[in-house]
Amino acid sequence: xxxxxxxxxxxxxxxxxxxxxxxxxxxxxxxxxxxxxxxxxxxxxxxxxxxxxxxxxxxxxxxxxxxxxxxxxxxxxxxxxxxxxxxxxxxxxxxxxxxxxxxxxxxxxxxxxxxxxxxxxxxxxxxxxxxxxxxxxxxxxxxxxxxxxxxxxx
Length: 154
Fold this sequence. Notes:
This protein is α+β, with helices and mostly antiparallel strands. The protein has two domains: 3-80; 83-153, no CATH class. It is built from six helices and four strands; from the N terminus they run ααααβαβββα. The protein has a four-stranded mixed sheet with strand order 2-1-3-4. The longest helix has 19 residues, at 3-21. The chain is elongated, with a radius of gyration of 20 Å. The model has no long low-confidence stretch (mean pLDDT 89).
């Protein structure tokens, strides 16, 4: 059986469990934390995640945990109308996350990361869309255009 299908089934079951228990937001936060750094397990672990972990261990499906948590995050965001945004900036900018959240409206959760290699500007990833307003991205686009134009001439 396809592991993606299995992971989605477990994620849907976890979503139903968290909706019944009212702990969806806490499980969402811990799932994000576990995906960022799997070596650090939050203490105490949410009871719904502990039940999932025990079930996966009992069924021999522990290797699917990362896929299940990623699917759960996606499903939880869809069910609550939350937008999950990943923001990468060249340097710290405390105002940018607030401006992005106000432009998107509604409930927005922003993961921020600092990456000096983008040299300036920022990148924003929302669902399957990416806005690259970085200096590195602009240089790469100019470089690609230059190569394409020169290949036509030759």
